[in-house]
Amino acid sequence: YSLVKTDFLHLLAKTVLMAKSKVLDFFPIVRWLPSYQLRDWILGDAMSGLIVGILLVPQSIAYSLLASQDPIYGLYTSFFSAIIYAVLGTSRHISVGIFGVLCLLVGQVVDRELALAGYLTESGIGSGISSNDSAVLLAGQGNGSVVLGCDRSCYAITVGATVTFTAGVYQVLMGLFQVGFVSVYLSDSLLSGFATGASLTILTSQVKYLLGLKLPRPQGWFTLCKTWYSLLVNLGSTNICDLVTSLVCLLVLIPTKELNDRFKAKLKAPIPFELFVVIIATLASHFGHFDTAYGSSVAGVIPTGFLAPQLPLWSLIPNVAVDAFSIAIVGFAITVSLSEMFAKKHGYAVDANQEMYAIGFCNILPSFFRCFTTSSTGCQTQVSGLVSALVLLLVLLVIAPLFYSLQKCVLAVIIVVNLRGALRKFADVPRMWRVNRVDASIWLVTMATSSLVNTELGLLVGVLASAFCVLGRTQRVRVCELGRAAAREHYEDLTSYRGLRTHPGVAVFRYEAPIYYANQSLFKKSLYDRVGLDPVKEKTRRLKFKKKTSEQEEEVADVTYRKPEKDEATAAATVTLDEKSRRSVRSVVIDCSAILFLDTAGVNALKEVRKDYEDLGVTVVLAQCHTSVRDALERGGYCPDAGEDHGGERRLVFFTIADAVRYVQNLSLQS
Question: Can you give the residue ranges of the STAS domain (predicted)?
Answer without folding.
Answer: 496-664
